[in-house]
Amino acid sequence: MEGRGRIALVLRGSSAFVGAALAMAPALAHAGNEEGVLVGNEAAMSAGAVTACIDDGTAVWFNPAGLANITRTQVDASGSASQLRLAETPELLSSASGASADGGYYELNGIPSAVTGARELEPGLVAAFGIFVPSLVGHTDRVRLDDASTGTPTTFQLVQQENVQQYYGGIALGYAASQTVRLGITAFGLYRQASTVSQFFGGASGASAFVEGDSSLSVLQSAGVALAVGLQWEMIPGLSLGVSLRSPALQLGVLRRSTSVHISATRDTVTFSPGDDMGLVPRVDLVTPAQLRVGLVYRLDRGWVSIDADVSHELESAELGIDRRWLVNVRVGGRYEVDPGVSVGGGLFTDLSPIDQIHNYGETRIDFMGGSLGFELHTPHHMAEGEQAPTIVFSQTFALRYALGIGTIGGLRFDTTQPTGSEASINATRTTVHELALHVGSSLDF
């Protein structure tokens, strides 16, 4: 479910900022959009261009048909050991007088992006499970604006801390219908938790001294389900087509709680208004659109080159704060085996924003483009005679991912020269985000 931030300001006399009401707001300059993390070792090395060629446990996520390529039991544990995001937002807060304050943040997260396991039940039939974290947000944004345009110096200050986590758990089956056709299906359960702490205050000293502001803590937890099916087809020797279709996510219930307080003080009066709201809503809603992924891979003697595209449809819900446009993203990547113990890979990708329009403070519409580069080390160990497998293979993957995001964010513009009762307006301002992630992964085949 897309979060929406709302902020309302009232001007007191001609010189003062009075208050703000902050609700569950989205991350400021939320990086990553649909795929802020490249899930799994193969995707991390090739910018996610794996729909037609994925052949490890992360096929549960990308294309379950790829599971049918597995002939050995696999356990994969992979993750972005660290992910750094830097955001710059000029004039996040601004006044009609020309005063402005820049926003921005830096964010450093450790993300366990995927844990998977796969086992061949019988020749051509493979079962697998996976736990995935496709995005994680955790940062604090601080903005301060000083305005003396009316002759009375006033100060405005915003502090907002946000944490958003999404988890997908999936069980899947892959089936080799023939030597050239593989099919698969995945059932997902999903869980989302988001929390926002916001403080927005303004004040002035002197003859017209005042202090007013709002503070809030909002927490939202939701659960849902989704289904995915996939196909891999070797059309001619060396050239394969991959297709996967993920259903819209059905949200089955939401637990929410919001605690807030408004404070207003002048030389003569003090107002204190606390609030608390909590509820469990067991309702079914579509919260993400269906997604179609299509890829082609051309296999070389010691590697492959692949191109992928995914399409998702528009989705609107005023009640849930969802306003998504049609979206298309493209990825190109490849992998090459330098020798039996070392493989290298790289690729380019787009990660465009699904947001149609900015309506509220803190909403973002940022389009990302970037690339990844990595290598994988394979270390086989021979087993004693009589063991079920002749060797076990340890693999370690290291990859870097960089993305540049350019777009707009809903800033706040107010006018302290207008009469009492004037409201602030949403001012879409430019923002830039740099994202750098180090992926460290490992796997065991036996």
Polypeptide structure, described:
This protein has 446 residues and is mainly beta. The chain is built from 2 helices and 22 strands. It has one domain: Outer membrane protein transport protein (OMPP1/FadL/TodX) (Porin, Beta Barrel). The chain is 2% helix and 67% strand. It has an 18-stranded mixed sheet that branches. The longest helix has 6 residues, at 41-46. The model is unreliable at 1-32 (pLDDT under 50).
Structural classification: mainly beta
Question: How many E-type strands?
Answer: 22
Q: What's the level 1 CATH class?
A: Mainly Beta
Q: What's the alpha carbon Rg, rounded to whole Å?
A: 25 Å
Distance between the termini: 40 Å
Roughly what percent helix? under 10%
**Helical run tally:** 2
Form type = elongated
Beta fraction of the residues? over 45%
Count of individual domains: 1
The succession of helices and strands, N to C, reads EEHHEEEEEEEEEEEEEEEEEEEE
Query: What is the CATH superfamily?
Result: Outer membrane protein transport protein (OMPP1/FadL/TodX)
Arithmetic mean of pLDDT: 83
- Given as residue ranges, the uncertain stretches (5+ residues, pLDDT < 50) are 1-32
Largest sheet: 18 strands, mixed
Level-2 CATH architecture: Beta Barrel
